[in-house]
Structures are given as C-alpha cells and as structure tokens.
Write a structure and sequence with these properties.
938 residues; alpha+beta; nine-stranded mixed sheet
Length: 938
Amino acid sequence: MFKKRSPVMVNPPVRHSFEQVTLLNGMWGTRMDEEEIGMTQKWYEFGDAFWAESSVPGSFQKESIGASVGTYNGEVSASFRTCKSGFLGTVWYNTSFETTAAAEGEQIWLNFGGVSPTAEVWVNGIYVGDNHNPFISFGFDITELVKDGRNDVCVRMSEQDRLFALGHNCLGSWSGIYRGVELKRTYGASISEFRIVPDRKTGNAAITFISDGAEAAAKLCLTVKEYKSGAVVAEAAYDVTIGKEEQLTVSVDAPHLWSPDDPFLYCIEAVLKVGDKVYDACTDRFGFVEMTTKGKQFIINDDPYFLMGTGEFCESPITLAPDTDIDNWRRKLKALRDYGYNYVRCQSYMAVQEYITAADEVGLLVQNELGALGAIGAHCPEHIYAWPQPNAGNFKHLLEQWTLGVKMAMNHPSARMWAMSNELAANGETTEYPRMAWKAYRETKKLDPGSLVIWTDGGINNDMPSDYINVNVRGFDLGDPDLCELNDKPCIQHEFQWWTSFIDVRLVEKYRESGHIPNWIERTCKNALANGLGDLLIDFAIVSQNIQAIEAKGKLEYTRRISPQIAGMDHFNATDTLGGAQGVLNEFYEKKLVDGEYWKQATGNCVILSDLDFDQRCLTFGKEFRCEIGVSDFEHPAFTCGKVNWKIADKNTVYASGELNYEPVPGRYIKAGDICVTLPQGDTPVCAALEVEMTENGRTVTNSWEVYLFPDSKVAMDDVAVASRGLAPWLDTLELKAYDAADNNAVVITDLLTDELISYAKKGGKVLVAASEGLVRAFHPQGVLSPAPYKKYRYYFTKPASYPPYEEGQYGTLLTKSSPLFGNFPIPEDAIHAGLQFFNLIGACAPLDAAPLGLDKKGVAMRMIHTWQCCRSLAELAWYSCGEGSIAISSIDFDQSRVEARSLLGNILDAMKNAPAPEAVISEETLKNICDAAILLD
C-alpha cells in the first residue's frame, strides 16, 4: 500500500495562497456491484466505462441508481422510502483528471473528505489503500502513480464498515463519497498534522506539528491574523526537522476571546520551507476559549453559561448525505442562534467539518458523539438496533475512529464537547466496557485538554468518566428527585420532550426539488383524502404548530424553573426530522409559525419565568390572582437591577400591574416574588396576557403568557332540562330540572339520545348530547415522555415525537370560528386553534368518533386533529338541523366549577335557542348510530 494519512484537511474555509489544490468534485461514474463481480472483472481498470453518474460530494441513493425500496427505521417502527434508491451494497466510483507527473522532489496527495461506509482506492489501475473510518478524512501519497495527461481514480465503496458509519437516522442508511475529493501537490515534504491548543489566559497557542518527507532541516514560519480583518497579530519562525513531531508555540498579546456571544476567530498560516524553497503551506482557524466546569455550572472564559441545546440527526433534506456547503450551514446554524440555541448535540454521529466550521462563526458549541461505547445504546430494550459494542472485534476500530475524530475537530473552538454513547444507562444499567471509556477519555484529554468529555448522553454513573451529566434531571414528575441538587457536576436535561406537529403538506414541492421522495407527506395526503379531510391539511399544520409552540415553550420554562440549578437543556429538536415534525423550525431551518424573539423568551441567556401552568390560564374578573415570578439569568454581564415589572393587559386595557424587587443571583433560577392582586370587575370575556419585563442599560428581557378573563356568572338554566345523566360526569355539576315533554323547554341536555328526544327535536326542540362511552375514540396516556402533571390532559397536547402506536394521539383542535356556538367566548382574531382557554375543557375528554357516527363535517364546530399516520375524522363539538329543531353533540367537559366551562356552555345554549338553524342536516343513519350507544347500558 501507499503512504496514508488521516485525518486530512479538505474543503477548509481558508486556503494558503501557496497551496496547489485541484478539486475533483462533480459527477463521477458510478456502477452497482450487486453480484460482487467487480474485483474479479477488475473494474478498477475500466476507466470511464461506468454506466451511471453520481455527484461527489453526495450519496448515490439520491440518484436513480438501484432499486426504489424503503428503509426500515427502528426508532419509529416504520419503513420510509425517502430517496430514489434504497440500495445498500457495493458500488464503484470512477473519475479522471488531467495533470503532469510529479517533478523531482514533488509530492502528490489524493485526499478524501469522507467516504461511507468503506473505501478502497485505485489510481491508474494500481491499488493504493483503503479506509475503514467513515467519519474521518484520509489521503494517500500517489506521487509515483501520477502521469502526464489523463489519470484515473477508482473507489470501491462497500458495506464492510456499515456499523461504524453515519447510518442510523430517520433517513435510513445511505452511502457515498459524501465530502469533497482533492488533489494536493507539494514540494519535497508536506504538512501532515497541525494541531492547536490555545491558552486564553496567556495568549499562547501550543502547536503540534508533523511533516511527511525525507528527514531534513527546515523552517516553519507562523503568522497569526484576525480572521475577519486580516490584521497580523503574531509571527514566529522555528527550525524543525522534516518527519519528526515538533512542539511549538506562538503568542498573541491580549487575545480577543471566542465565546457563543462573541465568536471571534483567528487565522494561522504555516509555511514549511527549506532555504528559500516553500515545500508546503496550510491555513487553519482557531479561537481562544476556555470551557470548564465549576460546581454545577458550565464556565466559558470565567462566565457561567446556560447551555440551551438541540439535537441533530445528520439529516440533510437537500443532499441526503451530510451537507458540505459551508454557506448553507452558516445560514442554518445562524437560524439556531436566532432562536436562542448556543449548543448542539450531534446524536450518535460526528458533524462534518463544514458544519463545525459554520458553528465556529456563529457561536454554537458542538457535542460530537462518536460511538466508542455503542452509539445507539448498546443492546438495551430501548435500543435493540445498536451500533457495535467495543468487544475484541471492535474496540481498536472504535478507539481509532474516536481518536482521529478528536484530531480532526480539535482546532475548532466550537468543538469543545464529546460523548462516547447514547443512553447506556437508560435501562438502569451501565456499559460493560469501563476501561474503554477511560481510555477514550484519557486520549481526548491528552490531545485536547480543554475539551469536556462524557461516557454517555442520557445516564449517570459516578465511576465513569463524566465532566458533566446529561440526564432527565427531574424525571417526569415533581415527586422525582432533582438530580441537579444531588450531583456536584453540571446537569443538562437529556432529550427534553419530543413534542411534534402535524406534517406540513405545503413543503412537498420543496422536498421533491431536493431529490427526496416525501413519502410521509404522500401518506398523510392519502389518509386524509380517504377520510374526507384533504381540504383541511393546511389548517391542520397551522393549528398543530400553534399547539406545539404553546406546549414546547411552556415545558421549557417549567423545567428551567423547577430545577433551579440546571446547567442546560438539550431539547429534541429545534428542527423537524423526516416523518417527525418536532422542531420550532422546519427541516430546512426555516420558521414554522413562531419567530426567534418569541422562542428566546424561554431559550435566551436570561429568561423571566412564571408558575402559571397550562390549566391556570382562565381568570375571573373580581377574583384574586396569584402567580410566582422568577429569573434565570446567564447574561454576560448579568442583570443587577433586581426589578421585574408586570401587567395583565390586552391591547386596549391594563387590568392590573405592579413591580417585583429581588436580590439577583446570576447563574441559576431565583424567585423574584409573587404577584397577588384582585382583578377588576368585567362583563365580557377577553383575551389578555400576563406580561413581564426587566430593563437595564439598554437591555430588555420580556416574557408573556396568554390568559383569559371571564365574568363571574352562572349559566341561565330556567328553560333547560336534563333527560338523562350518569354517563357524563359534568352533568352532575348542573342544577337542572328533569325533562318533561309537557314543559316548554328551550334546550334539553342528555347523555343518551332516544327516539323520544329525536321526535322532540324534529318538532322544533333543541337537544344537546353529552357524549360518553360508545360515541368517542379514546386514547391511552402519552407514555413516559409526557410529564406526570400533564398525563391526564392527553387530548390537548400532541403525542410525543412520532412513536407508535399511531392510533394513540392527536395534534390539536381546529375551530370553525364562524360557528355561532362560540358566541363571545374569548378566541384571538387570528386563531383557528383551541388555545389554553380550552385546556381544561378538552384535555381529559376523548373526542367524538366522527366518521363511524356519520357526523357530516359541515356541522363540526371543533375538530380534533388525529395523527397524520391515520387521519381519522374526530370532533369535539358539532351542531345539526333535525327536522324543525336541532341536535348538538359534544365531548367537552362543562364542569360548572370552571369559569370557562360556564361561559362556553352558556354561549352554546344561547346559540341553540336563538341562532338560525345550522345548514348541516343530521342523517337518520347518524341518529341511529348515536342512539345505539344506549345498548352499552344493557
């Protein structure tokens, strides 16, 4: 084999003017080898005789190569056909380039940014070597093979190292030469390693320098510049010996530090010379940053930081393989910063260099997660499709890829964090390979002393190497211990929640333009059309994104408040993933419904929090209102004013206001005080907000929570009777006379529809049916991913992520605002969704099973949105004409102890009494279906 080095620098953000690099990117010839005959037929000698083309960098699955089959995804127990090909197997690549043979003393290197899974390389028909580390860049010295004129490169890409590859994500497994390929020409010797460890206190940058070539005396000239301005800030020259490792230092006076708030970068140029002859040169960037821990806090350059993180799954809808366009990542990662994120966890993979390069520039810390201990959980019940454990057959390979990964990323100031695995302790167990964990830890600290390393993301074990802890800090119940209090290291909330929204069909063309097959959108459309809901799909997306934003913001605030010493939160995710619309941004890093300023009310460095929970948003005029306000301040510098102003107001009226004074404590949550106020009297329900603000020296932090103010009134029931009760518990909260056909009743309420009541309606009567068992489609609670306080409200919030069973969940409630049933119930003008004024009314109530009952959708006033995988027709409130009268049917909880229930029920009864009869007419079949529920009494 020919000399190999790894890692190598490919597609850097800056190149030295001396570097002689030829890019070999573009369309390469491609050929599948399904029968594994390429080696025996010597395809590496075929030149350009390959019959298809595939882009480099890229993935051949995106091209029309191979069978169009789906890929099974174990995380969500479903198959996804996401690209034109689902072929996994051996594929050959071929390209050619024109150049001249190496002159005397020259070196020519063929460098690959990354090939996944396994690469074997030939040049001009001669085998030069292989690569078994899919995450890592590599190169070969091909000096003696290059000839004048045309030269051929052939790569056999096989599945040998699939288990060590970038394959476990919602896209399924993919393959390809996924980063760029470059031909680099040097003279006499070349720079093979150039690693930088800056010291922000002294301004010294310690450099490890290694060169390839015949041993000889040489000189290495170093120049440090400010990256943006180009101003030279330091220079040094050292005598070195080619072929030997050298430890050097260059010093910068009073260096400008890098931090997430101020991502200041330096550029260092290295020129290797013998006499006046330049042999090689390189340019890299770095930053002076120190990330440490102190007690329960993360410290960056002496300041405490709250790590607000998101998860990344190596999904690139434009490219399928990892995106290698630095400008794309600059735009996308800036979007994360604009939404308050300062840290990202690459779940079970290492980000490509282009990603980390952009992270350096925008100020986003990156936790790479190479699977040294099993990247997806090491064969525990939660993760049966794990990556390989570090047993005798794998540990050398895993450790090598880990160590090379650290070398490849360590010059980036953003790459300060490393994890060896995902959720090894998720089942109360730990890794069987502690020595491997400590070995990887020590190797990382030796290479990059300033990095932070953990053995697993999602577990605690004090005997394992952990510079910090990433775990469910409070479990999912206030009764669980606060692990932030019990541990002496910084705690990050692991994979916080998995809220999600309905699939947005408006993105279908965007996916198709990128080369994807958006089968999750196609499936959504098919299911919705089959159930007569196709015209509602856009409204479903809008409504569900509203509910997602309410839930996500509220739960982020909740956890940051109930664990006062929490050091960070890593919620999953800021962006959607294929088949799981989990993000506040879509998968193209674009705004869905809320903007960054709204989101930073929960994710910012400094946030003002309240204990106003989801079920406490309906307030009563003339009654006392209480609420705790607190501050979590990780600003730099922290606020010192210790004053929070608050008010309850709509756009026209301030109903109450005040000021809270407290003693600031930066770097944790601190209670600022309690709001305690008696609200004024009012006659009409209004939409309002509790608004808070803190201002100091031109900086302002705000937050707000929607509230609804109702008059303290009872429902007029003099002309309302009840025909049957006992099945719908809320009926017991009404003081109603019993139905008597001889009475002149305006409305009759019942939990059983009978032939007598149908006849009554047909003659002009009004009947409100309180739905119970037999009329509704019940769902199970949403599982352990939903905190215990919210389990009973499983019909309000969305189902976590896109986990099966898909029948068990919903995505919000769509309102038909033109329905007179709502009356003056407070609904914002621009809202088509049931906000928190409906939380207690619908949260614990299963919806009407509209399709089997035959409820015509024209009569539906409130519709529950079922999962996109099924798209059942579900409703919560409907109203139909029946002969001369009308029948309404509702699954809402009108418990009269709640002011919002009294308000809405009063409006419904008033509309049934006085509004024109609805256009939708109830069918005889539907009436029979509703009456058949009575057989449940037998």
